[in-house]
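User: I'm writing a tutorial on reading structure tokens. Could you give me a worked example: one chain, its sequence, then its tokens, then a sentence or two explaining what the tokens reveal?
Assistant: Sure. Here is the example chain.
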Amino acid sequence: MGQKRVFRLGDRVRIKSGPFAEFKGKVEGINQSKSLLKVKLEIFGRDTPLKVSFSDAEKVEPPPPGQIWSQGDRGAL
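And here are its predicted structure tokens:
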């Protein structure tokens, strides 16, 4: 049996697969019954909501205080 994933509002996550793979964003909504997250990504300078399954997202550590995501982190907030 797989490990249960626990996400919280405000968590930083990386998208693991699909057209937005490697993008990073912030969890803005959680649907436990459907195992879906609503993640806000920044694409072309605009906030874009994306629904992804729990299995297609993984938590990432935020950058240290005072630093921003590196330019190599597409879709970083």
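What the tokens reveal: The chain is about 0% helix and 40% strand. The mean pLDDT is 83.
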